[in-house]
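Memo subject: From amino acid sequence to discrete backbone structure tokens
Action wanted: Derive the backbone structure tokens from the amino acid sequence.
How to read it: Take the token row as a discrete description of the fold.
Attached in line: The record itself begins immediately under this heading.
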Amino acid sequence: MSITIQRHDRPEEPVDYQATAGSGGALATARRTATIVMLVYAVLAALWLLVAYLVPTAPQPGAYVLQGLAFVAVTGGLLYSFTARILARATERERQAAERERQAAEQLDRQRRALERANRALLASYDTTLSGWSRALDLRDRETEGHSARVTALAVRLAQAMGISGEQLEHVRRGAMLHDIGKIGVPDAILHKPGPLADDEWAVMRKHPEFAYTLLAPIDFLRPVLDIPYCHHERWNGTGYPRGLAGEHIPLAARIFAVVDVWDALRSDRPYRRAWSHEQALRYLRMHAGTLFDPDVVRTFCALIERERQAGFSQSAASPTRRWRRV
């Protein structure tokens, strides 16, 4: 995805690129002209000296030769001065053209750096806004502070382990931050209900991915991140929602986040159970690989978790004090 920023600064002085491009041959043209003039002059001088020797009526041929030599010396000096001025003007035009090219390159470089700074500032402001939305969702859903940041960080690490990088990795990060943005369309009475949901209440709850699509799709900047908010409740065997996608028809980012989100849910306390242990949660994911979850994603995730555990990676997800969340 690319972001276009229109700047309305005072316009710079225009650069005549046609003149700049054409001036590169000025010196070569001047040299060709001077060479032709000098050749013509040399031919004429040679003819004049030849005539001075061959004219039979000339009383003093040597005098004509001397006059010819004097003529050659004087006109040669004038020709040299004329040629030197031509070359000097051509050289100056070359210097001015090079200076214009240098100034144009510097101007373009300044504009490029200014555009990059503006892009970075704009992206930073977008990410700050998304982080605010994410924290607001955590508070409204009565989750422990940091849930969205935690699953976002783990989803990014898993995506990197799956070979995702660059701009696509940014889409995963932002999509994970906004994975439950659609819950703003779910009434508090359903979202905060302490007991089991009735069938009609589940029907409303399961619309939150569609609410996310309705909210984010009109925003050009956020449209590429929709895979996770819209599809992270789809399941590998087609039993998920909202569209019942199956297998690789589910976007990879959503398949990655589905594993991370369920892992975080299993490792969280619920009203009816305590958080599962590390081994229990991994066993559940392996059990349902190929049915609920992409088996390749589960395999990569389990390897990642084991590596991080052996490396002593700090996982706040292991805390048993986190409150429950309705998924």
Summary: Confidence is low (pLDDT under 50) at residues 1-24, 315-325. The two ends are 30 Å apart (CA to CA). Residues 58 and 319 are 122 Å apart (CA to CA). Residues 17-124 form one domain.
